[in-house]
Fold these 3 entries.
Entry 1:
Amino acid sequence: MYTIYANNDDESASNLSSIKFRLFLQISSNFINKHHAQLASSVASLSDATMRLLLIRHGETVDNVAGVYAGSRDSALTAHGVLQAGRLAAHLAEHVDVDHLFSSDLQRAATTAQAILDAQKRANEVKLVVTPELREKDFGSGEGVKFGLAFEFEGEETPEAMRKRCDRFLGEHLGPLLHEDSIVCIVAHGILLGVLYKALCARLSHVTIAPGAQARPRPASTPFHPSWSNTGYLEAVITALPDTKDRFQMRVDKVNSVEHTKTLKRTRGGIGSAKFDAKQKTMDSFFTPAPKKPKCKEDDIVSK
């Protein structure tokens, strides 16, 4: 009798252990499936994130007109440069809602960036981040020297030093934004933007140039080196590679886009090339066309 009861107890214990084990497996499976689904959803979300990036050069400066090396020199915009910035700002306001705006701390870039911000519908929601990391190359003793008089200068910044600045900016400012849908504008300088573009490409897994992105097609064997006119911009789209969260690809859609300045004419008499004087005329009045004068009647015309 005792043996029979003992066997039944053993069998019951065994069945109970089996039930507990199966229950444990079921709970574990549910837990794993749930978190796997969450992870998959998270990766999918990251994969769907799209950054629209605009690399923008500042408006025309007095040093651009003078034809001198101006890197760390805090060169001011010309009256024409202010008009360029206004055209760019209006163009961007019509086509994009900027989420993040970065600029060099030199006034030619910061003034251009401020014009972009002021024209945005959500200007009060966007912060302009100004940083020395985006400054132009420092030409050392070459600052203010006429183009062509010399090509090497004492104390000029090395390409390696510029690359380090760009890498710091990408790591601290642009990198954290790659996992969100956003439109990012970076306003800086011609040489610096070229270095920044290369530093960005080095961090990406794949880069393509969209057909028609360049005004002048280049041979397939020729390396791609973008350039920037005053207020020209490069526009690109950055997305995560499928099923990944830390590998990204970029498609360049526009290179040196200056559509906004095609109809802009320089003011004659040297005024357009002169330094913009805010005391004489407000920036808003530069951006607002002057009222047209009424046409004279034939009777009012006096022949000479």
Entry 2:
Amino acid sequence: MTPLPRILLGVFMAVAPLLAQDTEQEKEQAEKEPANKGVRSVWKKHPSFRAGDWLRVDFRARFQLDWITRDPETKPGGGLFDFTRKRLAIEGTFLRWFEYEVSRELSETDFPWKDVYGNFKLNRSVQVRGGRFRIPFSQDQLTGPTNLDFIDRSRIADRLAPNRDTGAMAHGSFFEGGALKYQAGYFFNDGDNAADRNNNRTGENTAALRLTGRPLSKSGLFGSLTLGGAFNRAGVPEGLVSLRGRTTGKETFFSEVFVNGTRMRTGAEFSWTPGPFALKAEFISVREQRLGQGLRQEDLPDLLERGWYVYGTWAITGQNKARGLARGRGWLLGGKNRFGALELAVRAESIRFASDTNAGRPSRTQRAANILQTSDRAWTFGVNWYANQWVKAQANFTREYLEDAFRAPIQGVNLYWVYKYRLQLSL
């Protein structure tokens, strides 16, 4: 049997028994908590251990199997199976005011320990988190991998946002329904995404701030409309440690250049989820100093990395996006949820690398004053099937155009297609 039919067979075998269990699961969740609130085990979406009202331990697992092909093929071997994620986690609460999570990736990865933190909750407005977790920057990067609308994050979230690091953060929300939220933190380094090819940290202590708000929170149609902004600043040691550009197919199209000084990120974000639709957009700008990096040790113009994305989704089966497609009821089959939710998605995006000057002859060298600009512009078309609250299948078709064909994965070729299929199981 060829690989693709094996995937389809595996999807069917995984989904069929869970579809039958979904209705029973909903009934169980609708039931009230038992009168006996002593030590007990509970299954609500995932197994959980409870001890009265003072301890909750949830056991979580996430598995993602991908099938990837490229045109033209940039790596030998053609189609490729990839167990992208095999992640186990424990999370819960202690005495109601202390929350915790410990998660580890079992697949081969550069950073196996994911979220490892504790969160002290004085009240809704004042909370303090410490440990290893995502630096508050970029709504796309802050979205968990099992909740993404596309198989891959946008290029700006994957390459320009910092991702996880170790530090501390104050956060909370104000006003009715948490209409205004803040996150302010300080971290030892500049996140996993800023690591070099050998997984060495390229940024020093990072200060981060993010604010989001729903200005029309009391409006029915526009109540979910969210606007946000973020900023962070990190020191960058002298060396060949700038951020680099990579395609959806994980190929480098912009290599590191020499930097020294500070790395500053600014970001703006937009999100709106009316009914079965979702519309999201984001802009990120990164500026890296190049102090003393000229051939005569003169200061060079800053390296600029900028990009954006806009995407929309539509649950054609009618479920409410904000309430969760896996649990919602659609208009198909008289409101029954027998076949889950089917969603269409499309995303346009761009990421660009250049120096903060147009003076002089542009060059691709690592100490050029005027770095020759290059960019990656992409369209992604996707289909998501939410079989139930545990099983999700996705198909993405991405068209990428690289501005500088000389630095492309295949020299002289600008246009690339990437086809990805994913089966996800989460408990």
Entry 3:
Amino acid sequence: MYDFLLPDIGEGLHEAEIVGWFVKQGQKVAINEPLVEVQTDKAVVEITAPITGVIEKLGGEEGNTITVGSLLCQFSKTSDSSPPQQTQPFEEKKEESLPKEKIEFSVLGRVMAAPSVRKAARTMGINIEEIQGSGPNGRVLRGDLDRHAKQSSSAIALVQNKSKRSEDEVNENKIIPIRGLRKAIFENMQKAVSKAVLCTGMEKINVTKLVAFRKSIQQLPEMKDKKITYLPFFIKAVATALQEHEQFNAKVDEDQKALVIFPYIHIGVAVATSDGLLVPVIKHANKKSIFEIAEELESLLAKALSKKATVEDLTGSTFTISSTGKDGATFATPITNYPEVAILGTHKIVKEPIVVEDTIQIGHTMTLSCTFDHRVIDGEPVNAFMRSVADYLEEPVRFLL
């Protein structure tokens, strides 16, 4: 027998809720075949089979919550089985040691349903994304498809036998269930505003030299088929500033009433996707060049937007940047990525008249917004931190020092 225990599939995960099983007792499964979906505090995660074998026992039913290290399911091994090493729990105060071979977990930004239910939906011509599931956490069951099909048939018959309704009669509310990734965002945002005392500091800076610096880099022969955005510069500036202002590279331990300062700098970047906000993470950003950050960021953004980002890609941040982009707002007040103590919002770059040594010139400006937990950080350190970030963005030659 092989006991497969619930691994730590997230940063400091203690427990997860079983959303739905893809297998049942007595079923033979192959290695890497979908086994179960679980809901963590960040996302719905699909866990695959670690070996080939027969399912002898399931560690819980749909809707049950199980703790890390407890039995997820039990296998009876076949001749081609080779049990892997059990994943060890994550120790937050130490750097991650990534094994060469590990189980991959894909973050899913989709309606939850078993493969058999999805196949049935395709056969019936039903868009499963439109179904409100009756299972745990909104999981779509086969009965939901049957009810939807019956209701659709009844609705068609009703329309055929009734005259056109007035506008008032069809003006009904649209109900959108909060589930999956949106539910995780909902809960994390609620934690941030209910536990932290949030305040935002704002500053306008002159980035005329940064615009010229990026343009000169873009014109290099090595950059002929590449494009570098401003975001890698923002990430590098923040990562460097965090080395000087370590109290911002931290989280609050609510139980111990303590500020926990991280020994490494991992920058999360808030990304808007069709399913909601994801935060891919640039690990050890302070030790990487702008070009290394740009390449890694491009890869992470592509994975996030195509729903291929793993839990490893989306966890471990010690500080987060929220960039509104070139078409975004002039100012905003971002919400911290709880339990982090601060977040920096970077906003669109604007070409406008500016005063330089008592003369009016045409230049480029942008604004910064730093939202912080006022329980552990005061206003003066925020001003100093933003000034450090601004020093690099206003004089980008500092990146070369």
